[in-house]
Fold this protein.
Amino acid sequence: MPSFAPHTDEEIRQMLGDLHMESLEELYATIPVALRRTEPLDLPRDRSEIEIVEEFGRFGAANSAVRTSLVSFAGGGVYDHDLSAAARHLGSQSAFVTAYTPYQPEVAQGVLQALFEFQTMVARLFGLPVANASLYDGAASLVEAVNMAVGFTKRHRVFVSAGVHPSYREALATFGAGTSLDIEVLPLQGDDTCDLPDSLGDTQGAALVVGYPNYFGAIEDLRRAKALAAAIGALLVVVVDPIALGLLQSPGALGADIVVGEGQSLGIPLSFGGPLLGLFAAKQEYLRLMPGRLVGETRDLEGRRAFVTTLRTREQDIRREKATSNVCTNQTLMAIQAAIHLSWLGKAGFAQLARRNYDGAHYLAAQLGELGLVPSTKRFFREFTVRTPISATELVHRMLAHGFLAGIVPPGFDDRLICAVTEARTKAEIDLFVDTLGKELR
Amino acid sequence: MPSFAPHTDEEIRQMLGDLHMESLEELYATIPVALRRTEPLDLPRDRSEIEIVEEFGRFGAANSAVRTSLVSFAGGGVYDHDLSAAARHLGSQSAFVTAYTPYQPEVAQGVLQALFEFQTMVARLFGLPVANASLYDGAASLVEAVNMAVGFTKRHRVFVSAGVHPSYREALATFGAGTSLDIEVLPLQGDDTCDLPDSLGDTQGAALVVGYPNYFGAIEDLRRAKALAAAIGALLVVVVDPIALGLLQSPGALGADIVVGEGQSLGIPLSFGGPLLGLFAAKQEYLRLMPGRLVGETRDLEGRRAFVTTLRTREQDIRREKATSNVCTNQTLMAIQAAIHLSWLGKAGFAQLARRNYDGAHYLAAQLGELGLVPSTKRFFREFTVRTPISATELVHRMLAHGFLAGIVPPGFDDRLICAVTEARTKAEIDLFVDTLGKELR
Amino acid sequence: MNFLSHSAAGGRASSSPLVGDAPEPTIFELSVADRRAYSLRETEIPPMALDGIEEWLRTDPIDLPEVSERDLVAHFTRLASRNYSVDLGAYPLGSCTMKYNPKFADQIAAIDGLVNVHPATPPEAIQGWLRLLHELEGYVCEITGMAQATLQPPAGASGELTGLLIMRAYHASKGRKPSKVVIPDSAHGTNPASVSLAGFQAVTVPSGPNGLVDLEKLKALVDQDTAGIMLTNPNTLGLFEQEIQEILAVIHAVGGLAYYDGANLNAIVGVARPGDMGFDIVHSNLHKTFATPHGGGGPGAGPVAVVEHLAEFLPGPLPRPVDAGNTYTWMTPQRSIGRVHAFFGNAVVLARALAFMRYLGRDGLTTMSQLAVLNANWLKHRIETTFEVAYDQPCMHEFVVSAERLKEETGVRALDVAKALLDAGFHAPTIYFPLVVHEALMIEPTETESPQTLEALAQALEQIVATAKDDSAAVLDMPQNTPVRRLDEAGAARNPVLTEDGRH
Amino acid sequence: MNFLSHSAAGGRASSSPLVGDAPEPTIFELSVADRRAYSLRETEIPPMALDGIEEWLRTDPIDLPEVSERDLVAHFTRLASRNYSVDLGAYPLGSCTMKYNPKFADQIAAIDGLVNVHPATPPEAIQGWLRLLHELEGYVCEITGMAQATLQPPAGASGELTGLLIMRAYHASKGRKPSKVVIPDSAHGTNPASVSLAGFQAVTVPSGPNGLVDLEKLKALVDQDTAGIMLTNPNTLGLFEQEIQEILAVIHAVGGLAYYDGANLNAIVGVARPGDMGFDIVHSNLHKTFATPHGGGGPGAGPVAVVEHLAEFLPGPLPRPVDAGNTYTWMTPQRSIGRVHAFFGNAVVLARALAFMRYLGRDGLTTMSQLAVLNANWLKHRIETTFEVAYDQPCMHEFVVSAERLKEETGVRALDVAKALLDAGFHAPTIYFPLVVHEALMIEPTETESPQTLEALAQALEQIVATAKDDSAAVLDMPQNTPVRRLDEAGAARNPVLTEDGRH
Ligand SMILES: Cc1ncc(COP(=O)(O)O)c(C=O)c1O
Ligand SMILES: Cc1ncc(COP(=O)(O)O)c(C=O)c1O
């Protein structure tokens, strides 16, 4: 057996002796005999670490990774960005990786201060005063935002634009079964923006949810959305692509009450979709209903500045069945990683990065236009939707063979392809992609 | 330009202002005008970090790495071992990687204690009481050992077995030009062990150098070598494969005065031959002539145990032109890495590892024997020499095409192939290798 | 020119506990206008017109930090040096299973073909991932005694809610809508919270004097309106619910389902299985039992496994073999409750956990649990004269002691003992949980700590108690040797400063 | 059973400066018989007979540590936390160029196709490496103004000896055997040591009152028996040898060669070139100027570049293009002095250095040096009222101040200032070198430190001097905040304990 636990046979014997026992099995005397297994688990035997690493290398070799095997134009919440070496290095320090939730702040200032800095960055990005220390992913953040709106308004009526990520909407429906949400989906118009009605009716509501930009890439009119939501006493919940905020105005500045999003773009690897980073920020008035952990500033006995998790009375371990969120373990490590990566990019770099994403996507759109694949709107940031003359699934399949992940196919729309571009895509890659696509469609 | 230095333009202006200067060029007023360049360097412009990483990825892709592209049976001082994940992780901590030589022991206990532990492990491996904190590589260790013998005996006559690594012998000759060495090479016999004469003559000598096992894999008779050396007042210098010492008796126990070797096998990647790890240990009586850094134990003001570089008066920065070694920067990080890897292997693991290497090599030898490729001796550890019916260089070339690095060809002997086996080689790999070799030779 | 306009400079390690004792400035305080760390690749893409989005354009760049890479690295290296972690020392935090995480798993988590895969990649190009996940599902099911599992929930709490929604869907499929879920008073806070979020009402069953569910009281609580029960076993007191079969029979008798909170699975892997006990739905905290690192608070992974007849409700998609097992694809069960994660859960965490299971193998996994239980029992035995053991019975992988007597005698509370332990070089145990024990110290040594470490921990506890009796003020003044000392936590909550801009 | 037989246990972080203040046990003290961390792969190779080597077999296994992986990781993590490094803070160690090492270079050093290549791989299968090394040679030659270079020397001192052996071979090729090499009194210790090891006699030329080589004294020293001169420029006082052309002319006039010790190249990259100054042989410390990390004392890399007519003496093999540059192969010059490394030098360090050069590029490399010089001059200016500047002239990338006045006034020596700086959160400068300045503090801030850091360093120095004047005993008692305090160094040398077994 590989040596995971340190105990030598002799020590086990001695420890058992101290407990007046003869065998390890005796430790389980309180388990009814009928429940104690006599057979070993039906699992393979142990292996050395090197064999496991090699085995997982083979698992990996049976996937097509971006860059190694595929040039990616897929987005939908997670994007193939260039990652900074500094963030990778700093985020993988064992003091961050192998710590628990900072329950003893005297020996957890590293994690706590990093989270405080993360909260500040998210708040500034979103244009709102308070942000939490992360949730599981963009979908979870949306669910928590709606729960918070429900908790605040004590109403269950929720309007969701069909432009919100379909998986997020599905998660909302899944969890909404527990919280008795009454979800109404608002359809999109031809330009893929939400077809906002003149009014959301006479009944008061809990929330209106729109994307900014939305799943199909279109930039929604948040000012109008805010007015509509306000008219029925509902909170405006905005699901953002955080990178877009380097170029576009903050949703907070446009009236959003709660802003959520997927933070993978902020320095987290694709990771086959997880671990990701749920971002969450809100107006001050919702502070005491915020889900997740909050880190605050304080002083120690000697007057030195220090950080601590605060407003803990909101949390499940204290509020128990009255808590509006059950989150405990979150995505702290990803939050720290994002704080580091955002610091590496910095004020100027983040703006420049956003612009590069914009330029890349619009350049691709212009080239695809030449093939007759015209984006549904010109008002997009770094992701856009085109109609495909053949099955989009089939097209993606064919492009795979050429080493391209052509984009994502929205569930239920096999004639559409959503393409995303990041700063990692060069002109040469885009030109070759368009050229190859043209040949496949000819 | 990538942002390596932190200075903003404004700060540069202010700092120059404080110095009453207007431009950075003025800083160089003390350099004669004729020497100041007016043209920029004839080098390419800057690139982003991601582009550099990708560019070096392309350099890497143009090489055949072991495991990814080649199954290796090459040795000659550096071997394809399995590396422990723990040693990799621990050795790459920035506190070790980005520190300097421990000149301020109060803030360098980490490096110092790790080196003390390394010294202890090397001393125990070699069976000698004192070891230093590393030299550049096995070749440098041999050169320093001979210099030390010369310094101790005040003689220049050195006998070197032809079984010592040819590159080490070449380095000895190179540096021996400066120290006026009088080197005599002792030839090998048919079984690739040194053809030790009955006597080394009547003149007193400085050193006799033999390998254990030697370059061709053969285990030399150290007891006889010791007797021969002693007879002319010379020191016995032994060049070891440290892994062999998990199975074989320590050279110290067999009479060696100085033992040196290449430590790459102790947890250092192949690294295209560098950075490596020069090992060096000696008897107590040579302590004050030892080259390189030595870490010793002491106490701090408060009586706590602590470590410090000691016996510094031997070193070049104090002894200057009278120093017997000029080494300053050494291979500390590799020494720490080796100490960690050896601790991971531990007492039992190291013995088992050595045995696995032995078993693998003897298994390969047995299989090659079936093809008529019989090792020059049965008395080898994990490396052995066979005579090839065709040019060995040609054979290596052909085997490369099949994904094998078949071994090394000793310079000047194109009919010989030296094969090495480590614990990383499986029976299946060896069987396929022998099979393929058989087909190439048929 | 004096460049030191703010509290401290980047190049000084004064904030590190290694040298100096000043606090570390925030990254914003280290910022200087126009300083930067980034470099972006040359793409050769021309600037494109900003037509049609003029009205949405930001006018000022976001006020992110402006630091050199050198100061960035120094800052976060110093922050790391101000943080305790498993890699530094023992972390006997009850209920959290802070075991050592073997380093080879970091290599697994860095494999290009695993970590750099987009989740929207078509199944044909992710066969490795599908196989890996399916294999992990098999391990989870074999260990828990269940039939099928979803790997989507990214943490234990998410698994709980997923499981409870399955419970809900199950009842709905039978045309029923029971409203209550029973939980014991010793339950972790996530349990009642999840029950509420799943639309049920949490009904608390008290523990008996032996720390176990009081079967009679349970019977009195349960009726046709009971959707099910939620239990950890061993429970949060570290005790095995000996009447578990009887308890679950009570629930099943009214058509309810039994949910197993796997946070304490580390006690019984290979020894007993929730499925064999009669549980219907089981989540496992892979970040606890299967040694994926906790990351300062996450990410985790909380797969939910169910008995066969509940499999149709699992969230989709699930990785499933086709073509006689040669190929894998995604399939979503017919009556799936729907997704609970944007993609497939914390995939890289899942890979780490499978790697750990493969490493230990059949027998190693069982030994792991046995030694976790051995360590807990030995340490309990070792300190039973120092602190009152809450329940004097053999424990599983953790146990609870009370500092109540100490508090009465000396004024030193569980909190103070915890703080004093920090000075002794240990992380503190969990305190004030479970709620049923006053001045609780919940100690979980885990199997990766050696007997020598347990002895040192016991001696440290003895020393603290001795000091408390001798000079209680000294204990109240601890910790002294930590990067900061006790904090004004009340002040932090009274006047919350949650961002750099939130100071008043 | 009391398991704590030795000084401390593995699972307690008491030895870490983060918590507690005890020293860390050695890995041997943490060992327990039969404990282990390793796991070895299954190879399926049968045990083979040990025929013929019976007499050589070891009877007892080597007494290596016996620890769990958990304790191994804790031990070396704690050791790391007891070490200062550039990543934590400023390291103004004169002559050592402790600049920040950009993190992307760690990724370069981990590229499979670079790091996992056996040096005996035939040229056809290492074209990437050969191209990389050849490209680096080009950079080194362009920067130093030389024609060809060997990349073999694994450090600066090895480069020196290599260069001096080339000098020797050159003279021998002319049928001459001159015996003397001139070095200035301010030279680094490796220079005279290398001169002796190359079989020459070191002849010292004194510095003038301006810290520069005294040209007249040099002329008096030099004759037909002079093989050459060895200089750093800027010299170890941080001063540029303004009469360098005249100095080298004196040497060249007698047929001698001029060797440039590149340890101080960081001052002048892109600004001035040793080749243009008239040097014939130049080594560069890539671990200094080109930001490869120092690794606690190594590995480094010290390529030696030479003018065209000395290229025939370079150690072989050298990477050289063939087939019109489409392919590379190894070539050894006709009159090569022979190898100076077992293989091709510290290849992975070389790759890091090239990556750094490619990253900064033409202009960035020049700016790097300019800012290093700016920082040094600004800091010198900033502290010139606090300490006596040894030579009151514009400096290059470093400068030397003297604590002699302070010592006279207060008894506080350069050593004490260094120790006090540790308490202030900085690494200390180099002290007592160069030998020509009494109570020398040799300060090299490097370009990666910000003006804010320089200001903080200046303030820390001011504070130390103020404290010295006020209460010198307080300074003599520093450092207080470091993992250990001042050591008994004399005792360590008097009674050397160099291994665990060497204690008496
Ligand atoms: C008993 C118990 N249940 C549930 C949880 C929640 O798990 P997670 O933190 O992964 O959401 C925990 C976590 O501490 C726990 O200890
Ligand atoms: C001026 C000078 N020359 C030579 C050297 C020796 O270089 P290395 O340590 O790389 O051998 C040094 C190193 O500190 C130095 O400062």
Chain C touches chain A through 204 residues (CB under 8 Å).
